[in-house]
Design a protein that fits this description.
cell membrane, mainly alpha, TSUP/Inactive_protease-like, TM_pro_TauE-like, 71% helix, transmembrane, two-stranded antiparallel sheet
């Protein structure tokens, strides 16, 4: 069943797009991360233009984050004050990212920039996750002693002025730190179509020193508003949001996330992290291969 995507300017199999959304939703439910960082590269591999893939993936992440935010708010797992600062930074980052997106678009380098950024980002994150997963497995098997962790914010964060209290997070730090973190996430959301959770959550724990009980909920709170803002920015500036594609992905991801959450409860977390790390590295390798692989047709002619 083929459907025409008006913005991507090509036809796709609707069932394949729904299945792709379901697969990403399944992984999101199993691993507890947003699906945007996998949706965009998988769409690129399928053949969707990177600009459309990034913009449409942000739309999908917005819809998929709604239920998660309400669930965490009901159990008090959201630091609204911290989330508000992160959202403010994220919206500013989205506006700056849109300007950068248009600049790269006008120079004709946006597709290459998205692909290269994904290879670098996914490669570094994947290697870090792989190292942590292997260490956790060795600890679980008794081959390595567990290292005690102390929750504290980074010295650079401690040096920033204008401190304020974030009671739910148990912090007394400068709001400039989460503002800058949100700004960086907003840029990534615009350029790559990611929610930013797989970058934001570790940063909130290891840089800001937030209490783990509110990290995921606060991250989803920020992701919801920033991806919504990014969608609006894309729709009004870059014109790259394909609502048909986003709808197909969202239908699949909602169902897949529910199934993934059930499967996650039956698996050991260290092995889930290992599987996710290998998957992230595989996607990074495939995109990197596409950057260096010589295509069958070097030149194409487009008729207007």
């Amino acid at each position: 069943m083929d459907l025409y995507l008006p913005i991507a300017n090509l036809s796709v199999n609707a069932l394949v797009m729904i299945a792709l959304g379901a697969g990403v939703g399944l992984l999101s439910g199993m691993f507890g991360v947003g699906g945007g960082f996998l949706t965009t590269p998988l769409l690129i591999v399928y053949g969707i233009p990177p600009t459309v893939a990034a913009a449409s993936a942000a739309t999908q992440v917005t819809g998929a984050s709604v239920s998660g935010v309400f669930a965490h708010m009901r159990r008090g797992g959201v630091d609204v004050r911290m989330g508000g600062v992160l959202v403010a930074g994220g919206i500013l980052g989205s506006l700056f990212g849109a300007w950068l997106f248009r600049l790269l678009q006008q120079s004709g380098q946006i597709d290459t920039a998205i692909a290269v950024t994904y290879v670098l980002l996914l490669g570094s994150i994947g290697l870090s996750m792989l190292r942590e997963a292997v260490a956790a497995i060795l600890v679980a098997r008794g081959r390595r002693p567990a290292k005690p962790r102390r929750r504290r914010h980074h010295p650079l964060v401690a040096a920033l002025p204008f401190r304020m209290r974030f009671y739910a997070s148990g912090l007394y730090i400068s709001p400039l730190a989460p503002l800058l973190l949100g700004f960086a996430t907003g840029i990534l959301t615009i350029l790559l179509g990611i929610g930013g959770g797989f970058v934001l959550v570790p940063a909130m724990i290891y840089l800001l020193g937030m209490a783990t009980g509110v990290v995921v909920g606060t991250s989803l709170f920020q992701i919801l508003f920033v991806t919504a803002a990014a969608t609006m920015v894309h729709a009004t500036t870059t014109k790259a949001v394909d609502i048909v594609l986003a709808a197909l992905l969202l239908v699949g991801s909602v169902a897949g996330a529910q199934l993934g959450a059930r499967l996650a409860s039956r698996a050991k977390p260290e092995y889930l992290r290992l599987a996710l790390a290998l998957m992230v590295l595989a996607v990074a390798f495939r995109i990197g291969l596409g950057l260096g692989w010589r295509p069958d047709e070097i030149y194409t002619v487009e008729l207007n």
